[in-house]
Each structure stands twice: as C-alpha cells, then as structure tokens.
Design goal:
- By secondary structure, this protein is of the alpha/beta class.
- It has a single domain, classed as Rossmann fold, CATH 3.40.50.
- Helix content is 41%, strand content 14%.
- It contains 8 helices and 7 strands.
- Strands 3-2-1-4-5-6-7 form a 7-stranded parallel beta sheet, sandwiched between helices.
- The longest helix has 28 residues.
- The radius of gyration is 17 Å and the shape is globular.
- 46% of the residues are buried.
- Bound molecules: NADP nicotinamide-adenine-dinucleotide phosphate.
C-alpha cells in the first residue's frame, strides 16, 4: 500500500514519546508515515536533542516540537504551533511515562507523596494536560483519535508499584475523556502493550523477569525486541477503521491478559 492510499492518508498526527529508535512511539511514527500520515514529534527536557536525532532516522522528515507535559507554557506553545501549521489535529499518540526510582522496585510503602506526585503527573495527568491543550484542534478535525500507551493495570505486577497505580489512573482517565470528548467527535483509547525493550523499560527493575516469562505465557508468543505489533494497533486506532470505538483498552500482549496461568 502506498502512503497516498494508506490507512492514515491525509491525517496529521502528533506523536509524543520518541526518544530512541527503540521507543514504542518511534515504531508508530514510522508506520504512520508509511500509511500516509504527516507526523510531528514532540520531545522533552534533556531528551529533546535525542528526539531530534532519532527523528532523522524516519523515512520522511518530521519536525520536533518541545513538550514537557508538566510545563503549561510548552503545551500552549505546541497548540499555537500546530494551529498555525495544520489548523487541526487528527490524532495524538501519548507515549509518556516516568516514575522516580523510589516508586519502583517492590515496596509500595517506600515512596513519599513528592515522588508519587511526579509519577502520577507525568504518566497519567499528562493525558488530560495534552488533550486539554489540543482539544480545539482535535475537535476541528471533525473526527479524531487519541491513543495512549498502557501497561495493563488491572492487576499488581512485580516491582511496577506506583507506575502501576499511575497506569490505573491513566486507564480511568481515558474512559472519562472518552465520555466528555465523544460528543465532539474525539475518540480516546489505550493500547496495553506487553514488555518491549526501551529506555523506559530498562528503568523498571522487574523488566528482566517480564522478559523471561512473557513469551512462555503468551499463547501467540512474544518478542521483547519487536515493537511492530504495538505500532500496528496504534495506527489502526488512529485510523478511520475504529469509528465507533472509544474508552477501550486493546491488549497487544500476545494474549497474556486472557490467561489464568
Ligand atoms: P521510552 O522510549 O523511554 O519513552 C518514554 C518517553 O516518555 C520518552 O520519550 C520520555 O522523554 C517521555 N517523557 C518522560 N517524561 C516526560 C515529560 N515530563 N514530558 C514529556 N515526555 C516525557 O519508553 P517506551 O517504553 O517507548 O514508553 C512509551 C510509553 O509506553 C510509556 O507510557 C510506557 O509506560 C508505555 N509502555 C511501555 C512498555 C514497554 O515494555 N516498553 C509496555 C507498556 C507500555 P524524556 O526521556 O526525554 O523525558
């Protein structure tokens, strides 16, 4: 399929969370371009220069704008930039997560509120911050799609601790955003991914354990070095092929979520 008749042909999409070419968001950006989308990336803080370098590895040039989701000025500037550039936004990928080390490791009682607040703000509240700032542009598109990356938070995981709590908040928030934005033509969905080896994954102390067991538990098997299945689901949800789906969590985990043991 050529980009001109691809799934995302004519769509203008903001993709957050590209840090390296291993980032889940990088796979989404590459596939979105291949499917005809025009893409702008966002990066934050010290990672911004790395995002710019990684952007050059895409098949088509993609501009990078600065969005630290905790900085309202960045969000306002991004909205102004995208308004001037496109006048609308057809899709957003939220691929942002961070928790201080005190929030991870297998002792949920260890972190204090100051650390927990950072994890919740960056990993969950940020979806509201981003969607809120770009809401007029999403609405202007007539029909638009927000996709956020999740790690299934319906159960407790080894060492994931406050990131798990933050992901549970993200899941709930996606449902409320779906409720409030649906009447304006904006869909909000999550892709709950299995473990993929990225920078963020390396900072999760239990990640090696997930890597060792996931493939064995997944009926479809699982490759921690392959982000393509996650990218495909995100692109599908960003396309017009899920027009009546919102508030949904799509598992791309090889089927692990459905197994009892
Ligand atoms: P990644 O490549 O390290 O991406 C994480 C991104 O979050 C980075 O680009 C990082 O940018 C960004 N970020 C952190 N703080 C930010 C802030 N204040 N403002 C804006 N951006 C910020 O790792 P990834 O695994 O692809 O993670 C992307 C998403 O997928 C995360 O939500 C993660 O929880 C989720 N996920 C990952 C897996 C997995 O196994 N890898 C599984 C399920 C879900 P900086 O580093 O520059 O701050």
């Amino acid at each position: 399929m050529s980009p001109s008749n691809g799934l995302l042909s004519g769509k203008r999409i903001l993709i957050t969370g590209v840090l390296t070419d291993a980032s889940l968001a990088f796979g989404v950006a590459r596939l979105a371009q291949a499917q005809g989308a025009e893409v702008v990336l966002s990066g934050a803080g010290r990672g911004l220069s790395l995002t710019r370098r990684t952007a050059r590895k895409l098949d088509a040039p993609a501009d990078v704008i600065e969005i630290d989701v905790t900085d309202p000025a960045h969000l306002r500037a991004a909205a102004a930039d995208l308004e001037a550039r496109w006048g609308r936004v057809d899709g957003i990928l939220h691929a942002i997560g961070f928790a201080p080390q005190e929030c991870l490791g297998g002792d949920i009682l260890r972190a204090e509120w100051e650390e927990v607040a950072v994890a919740l703000q960056v990993s969950a509240y940020s979806l509201k911050a981003l969607v809120g700032a770009l809401r007029p542009l999403l609405v202007a598109a007539g029909s638009s799609s927000v996709v956020a990356l999740d790690f299934d938070a319906r159960v407790a995981w080894p060492a994931y601790d406050w990131m798990g709590v933050a992901k549970a908040a993200l899941e709930s928030l996606a449902r409320y955003l779906a409720r409030d934005l649906g009447p304006h033509g904006v869909r909000v969905n999550l892709v709950a991914a299995g473990p993929v080896r990225t920078m963020a994954a390396k900072s999760i102390p239990s990640f090696k354990g997930f890597e060792d067991t996931w493939g064995a538990r997944a009926p479809l098997g699982w490759d921690v070095n392959d982000s393509e299945p996650v990218a495909r689901a995100c692109v599908a949800l960003l396309s017009d092929w899920f027009p009546m789906t919102t508030g949904e969590m799509v598992h791309v985990d090889g089927g692990v979520h459905a197994m009892g043991a």
